[in-house]
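Quick start: what a row looks like.
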Amino acid sequence: MLALLVLAVGVLVAWMDQPRDVLAASGPSDGAIVSRSQSVAWTLNLPLDEATRTAAPLPVVTPAGAGTCAWQDARTCVFTPAGELPADATVSLAFSDELRALGGFRFARERVPSFTVRTLPAVAVSAPSASLPAFGPGIIELQLNRVPLNPAALLGEIAITPSVPLQTSISDGRVRLVGDFRPGVTYSLRLASNPAIAADDRPLAWQGEIAMPARTPGARLVAEVGRTAHIESVGLTYVIVENADGQRDVVRFPASASAELPAWLLKAGENRLRLRWADGATDVVLHRHDLPLTPDDAVPALLGGTLPVTAAR
């Protein structure tokens, strides 16, 4: 019995002598990016003693006026911004060393928690670029410094002059505008904020002029059923046509941007061709369907001197 009593006393003494500075806080760490208008919470590892929680000062917010702190419960402290905080600003929160958890546990004196977080930077636009392929619509791209919280609203605030119907998209902070832009025309582009855009994405008011370049030189095959296939070109004087058997011919464009495809390069059925020029190339597939052989010379007949085809891609 005496031995048990001694053991109990020893355990009690050991408990009373154990370190009491084990209280700690966790949440957004130093340098974390937080919203400019939403609350931020830090959580203690132990519940606070109600009496000391009421008596101890609330965590101190710097700069003063940035917002307020309040205890949501015995373990959770919540910082609520006073309106919309400035973009790309810092806010610090320092806990009081007078706080005590149930059982008297406290912060280590040399490690009383203090956290400094940064608000989201405003969305900014940089590196506008424009391209106009040989065929098809043109492309304007704008790089944003970060992905917006409400990309759909931001895309809805794009205005362009002269007016062009746009297909808009955004991926990884890169805005892409696709439309029937005309070469040599300068377009005025504007992105503006409105209340529909998330607060963290405002203010945004960017305006710039983008000159559409000349079309990129290129060539393509154009074919219709029952018609001779043609090569169309942009900014080229010639195109080399090569079939799968290695036969080739040079098609020149002396006066226009269109020329007939040499029929002798093709066989009946599927033909895989390559169009090549000085700075580029493209592969196309063309289907040729000849009329039945003539009884005289066994040469495939052409329909009225044209080259019948079904499709080209």
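That is the whole record. Residues 63 and 91 are 6 Å apart (CA to CA). The chain is about 10% helix and 40% strand.
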